[in-house]
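Hey,
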Amino acid sequence: MAARGHVQDPNDRRLRPIYDYLDNGNNKMAIQQADKLLKKHKDLHCAKVLKAIGLQRTGKQDEAYALAQEVAALEPTDDNSLQALTILYREMHRPELVTKLYEAAVKKVPNSEEYHSHLFMAYARVGEYKKMQQAGMALYKIVPKNPYYFWSVMSLIMQSISAQDENLSKTMFLPLAERMVEKMVKEDKIEAEAEVELYYMILERLEKYQEALDVVRGKLGEKLTSELQSRENKCMAMYKKLCRWPECNALSRRLLLKNSDDWQFYITYFDSVFQLIDESWTPPLEEEHSLEGEVHYSIEQAVKFIEERITEESKSTRPLRGPYLAKLELIRRLRCRGCNDEYKLGDPEELMFQYFKKFGDKPCCFTDLKVFVDLLPSSQYTKFISQLLEVIPLSSTAESEIALPADIKALQQHLCVVQLSRLLGIYHAMDKKQKLTVVRELMLRYHHGLEFGKTCLKTELQFSDYYCLLAVHLLLDLWLEEGEEMAVWQCLTLLEEGLSHSPSNAQFKLLLIRIYCRLALMQNTYSTTPSGG
């Protein structure tokens, strides 16, 4: 029985073998098949283009281009030919030819939604923003859909971004884009979140911060739902631009009550508290503190709020780093103002020690703590490192002369301490013999740590890679600061070994490039220096 429904174009069936050969990389057979087909059907334009693709892929670019231009000159309007030419021009890195192709197609088939949208995308690839705007509006007139209208709006924004004259951007392109969106707002035609995002972007670029805030807080802002706290983040940004610190403070405080682990809100909270203190702000007697609710405007309130977040965290089933780091951040800010002792927030050294005990097995612990090491007096560095080492579960074995971690958590803790030692300059103060001893110990730990990464994929880093990196940096110090030439060759050996275990480690690769380049530079310097006569 004959199949009902859509009748397949017989040319599709004829072209299918050529497509299959091209997909399988058999370009010579694709050319032969195209030649056979063209003997029977000389006017089958798509077969010529598919042959051109085969020629392009076999290195015969001139023949491919000539054949493609022969077809393009006929201004084809069938999908097969247009799509094949688009693929060919992309492989030729000639996207500007695609625009000419669809310009001709649109003239012949002026009501085609598909060809108009392809023309718009072709302009987008070559950065023809003005033509994009025109194509978007032409498409909207044919098919009045919101996305096409906002394609045109976005094209205006792109014209403003790429404009050489910033004044032209703010007096012509952006105001026109704003009027276009306002028209849709007045007609109640805004449908999608992306359209609201675009409106917000325009107002922000025009520095109309109050209007942007009104959009986000109003009915249109209800559409901002795809990202977590998208609406609140945009409000926060506008409050900062408008220097509305009471709203900034109240909103960040409210968001921290919901999620006390979001660091950006702690920073905004502290910034706003100290701004309000500097401005001697006081809340109104009978009205609400702000549009966003209660405001904290004193150090006492900030201290109490952070302590409450830590108390709440202790009840949480999942350990949260934010409240503990916020306390250290508050200590640092208070210390800058010379009033830390008054509020007795605690000793930074002890707070960092307790933080390490709680989160030391996480790779982020080092990056968290390094921001606050300036709170430690330099005389306490060695004591602090020793204190951290005491709580790491290391065990000695008959085969090893040093105590080694028994699991990955202990390894991460020890790595954190080693990195902090490097940061605090403890290794820098050592003499050559001591540094070489540390290098040897680090490499023993590196090799031991490889045992934990036996199941790692090639794309994953070994858990102990940082031991190898630190050993290399110590050897580099010996080479660059003390002229120890053997150290650089040892660096290369260790890095090549590390790369064999972690082929995806970018730091190993960058260090190797840096050292090889430096050695080549030195070699060139020696070779070009004239010898004494």
